[in-house]
Amino acid sequence: MTAELTKREIQISELIAWGASKKDVASLLFISEHTVDKHVRHIYEKTGCTKINELSAWWFCKHFNISFSLSPLATKIVSIALLILFSYGEIKQTSLITQQRNRVQTRTERIETRSRTQRLRREYEIA
Q1: Does the pLDDT of residue 45 top 50, yes or no?
Q2: Which of 19, 34, 115, 123 is such that its CA lies 20 to 30 A from the CA of 69?
């Protein structure tokens, strides 16, 4: 499959391969969703893909020079490697979000504790 994609089609196929939705692509490239749909249809025609998953696999194979005619074993190994790579990125991103959430919770708990302590001191001084 040697598809001659335009510069814009290459941009769109890369963004979609990395998991962007058509709405995200439109926003990032400052074009309408209808235009993205049109480009995706052209990409499908040129690459022979029929689904987003196939387009993602096609893009990664082209980008990392992975042959389309691999043996079933090699295909599974490459698929597993890409899955591990993707999963690692997702886990890392999730842990960063969790760390940020924990920092916010810790700050909130400290503020609540201070407020509670100050309130108790005032009540003790009044009594």
Answers
A1: yes
A2: 19
